[in-house]
Amino acid sequence: MNKTTTRKKPLFHLNGWGFVTPAIVLFLWFNLLPMLQSFITSLQKGKGIVTTFAGLSNYARLFRDPVFIRATGNTLTYLIIQVPAMLVLALILAAMLNNPKLRFRGFYRTAIFLPCVTSLVAYSLLFKSMFALDGVCNQFLMNLHIISEPIPWLLNTIWAKAVIIMAITWRWTGYNMIFYLSALQNIDNSIYEAAKVDGAGPWHSFWKIIVPMLKPVILLTAIMSTTGTLQIFDEVVNITNGGPANSTVSISHYIYNLLFKFAPDFGYASTVSYAIFFMVAILSLIQFKVSGDKNDKIS
Amino acid sequence: MTKSANIQREIRMRKAVAAGQYIFLSITAILSIFPFAWIIIGATNVSKDITMGKLTFGNQLANNFNKLIQAGDVWLCFKNSAILALIITVTSMLVCSLAGYGFVVFRNRMKDRFFSLILLSMMIPTSSLMVPLFRMFSKMNLLNTKLGVALPALSTAFLIFFFRQNTKSFPYETIQAARIDGLSELGIFFRIYMPMMKSTYSAAAIITFMSSWNNYMWPLVSLQTKDQRTLPLLISSLGSAYTPDYGIIMVGIIITTIPSALVFFLMQKSFVEGMMGSVK
Questions:
Q1: Dihedral pair phi/psi, residue A102, rounded to 5°
Q2: A238 vs B129: CB contact, 8 Å cut-off?
Q3: Contact A151/B264 with Cβ under 8 angstroms?
Q4: How far is A27 from chain B (nearest CA, A)?
Q5: What are phi and psi of B223, to 5 degrees?
Q6: Residue B229 has pLDDT above 70, yes or no
Q7: Chain A contact for B29 (CB, 8 A cutoff)
Q8: What ipTM was predicted for this assembly?
Q9: What is residue A297's predicted lDDT score, i.e. its pLDDT?
Q10: Do A252 and B217 touch (CB under 8 A)?
Q11: In this complex, do A114 and B33 lie within 8 Å of one another by their Cβ atoms?
């Protein structure tokens, strides 16, 4: 790879810019420029077009805004419960499906991956219909005598969050599993055999062999899932629309509401946008740091 | 305890673990598949039966379908979604693969800096861009247009990163040989690089097509008129009605899901291959 850097000729420098310029221009125009404009907007106050400079007062407002605090709490709840649970589940499934002696492997793999083909809006509405008060989930649980009366899934502040967490996990576990499965297939089978000879049980070899060897892929999926869950929007809007009593509203949903549900407050909406940006940035950096030797593998 | 008893105990334990594994996998597989059966059954029933959890086929499929067409122009939305997905997939693959190639083959310090900047922008959440892009596009009169939906999706950090990563394993000798043969730089890209990187391109195409086809937030913000609506916007508006008609919604979900399912299963193999190229 380093050969490229040493062997290039000056002539191609000019040419090379032709290759990268369209992407750079589009990127600067629709990513960086809006982010900069958004920062300026976040320092302004006022509804609609009439605005005045307000300094950092919008940022101070964040800490006094109960809806923002609620939305942040909800989003972090989704993140803390859903991402680790899903990634561990995906890892266990991948480890099981990696066993060549397992029967019906192809069936299991395809079945578990299937949810990924649904669009986010579509599966959200699907979950909404399944978790209706007299819906199929309550009937099933009642027939099994697990519960004696229907759970008001979407009407209860805690259950509504649970439905959203279950929905995201249903949609994305198979997706992450595919990453792990392909990475596992690159590990030489003789490592497992050697571990077996040394007396390692499946539990031991899962934690001591599989997890360390998959570290780069686990980091990749952790970052993708974290940024995805922090921005969760489609599911919240379509399953609960933020209700009941804002108990499921996410930060992205709140930004949307600030823009379209109430009189548009661009300044404050931009401030909330920056809040979510900082959260994503900080969490990604932490994940990079924690994983240590990331650079050679990921970038 | 005797030795044979020990061995027997271990064999029993192994069998229990294996059985547990099959039970676990089967439950997961059933939970994954059940909602699909639910959509198909639901599409043949009236809304009331769906929310009552009816699990048998009804005879309302044609009726639901007709009601869907009356409720919103589903074919127009389908066409809008398809045109957008096509424009975004073709253009962004071209723009981003050119860049990914350029960042590797014509690498220099300045380009590396731009690339790091792009990579850092992966941390910019799309929801942070919602407000500024909405204002920018309303000034440019691009709200309610397909161009307005497509523009922010054309140059994405992920795709550029993805192509750059995969280009690293492209043999540089091939490029040199082609230069000696007198091929232009663009000629090398289009006639040698592109055909050789087929699996990378199909993985990128799947990702881009799926994200464009299913994109919800930015179209919801930027498309306010009915004639520009995409499929996710249509079914979402059906779902947010005061009393949603789930029979119609199920048919809508089926129509929305078929294209992305087809694309995915036709190209599944190269998807996994191409994705793994970027983590290796």
A1: -65, 135
A2: no
A3: no
A4: 6
A5: -105, 110
A6: yes
A7: yes
A8: 0.86
A9: 43
A10: yes
A11: yes
Q: Give the DSSP letter of residue A261.
A: I
Burial class (CB in 10 A: 0-12, 13-18, 19+), A187: middle
Q: Which residues pair with A44 in a beta bridge?
A: A53
Structure tokens at B7: 């061995």
Determine the Cα–Cα distance for residues A159 and A132; give it in Å rounded to an integer: 12
User: Which amino acid type is present at position B5?
Assistant: A
Give me the total of CB pairs closer than 8 Å, taking one residue from chain A and one from chain B: 292
Q: Give strand ranges (E) for A24-148.
A: 44-45, 52-53
Which domains are delineated in chain A? 65-298 (1.10.3720.10)
Contact A184, A206 (CB under 8 A): no
Q: Residue A145 region, left (φ>0) first, then alpha (ψ -120 to 50), else beta?
A: left
- One-character DSSP codes across B99-132: HHHHHHHT--HHHHHHHHHHHHGGGS-HHHHHHH
For residue B53, is it left (φ>0), alpha (ψ between -120 and 50) or beta? Answer: left
Q: Are residues A216 and A298 in contact, defined by beta-carbon separation less than 8 angstroms?
A: yes
Residue A169 contacts B, CB cutoff 8 Å: no
CB atoms A136 and B53 under 8 Å? yes
CB atoms B216 and A297 under 8 Å: no
Distance CA B97, CA A19 (A): 9
Helix axes A157-185, B268-279, angle to 10 degrees: 80
Beta bridge partners of A266: none
Query: What are the residues whose beta carbons fall under 8 Å from the beta carbon of A65, sequence distance 6 or more?
Result: none
Give the mean pLDDT per block of 10 residues along chain A (299 residues).
46 74 93 92 78 83 93 95 95 89 89 90 93 87 86 92 96 91 81 77 79 86 89 94 91 92 85 92 84 49
d(CA A23, CA B98) in angstroms, rounded, equals: 8
**Token pair in block for residue A198:** 């040394």
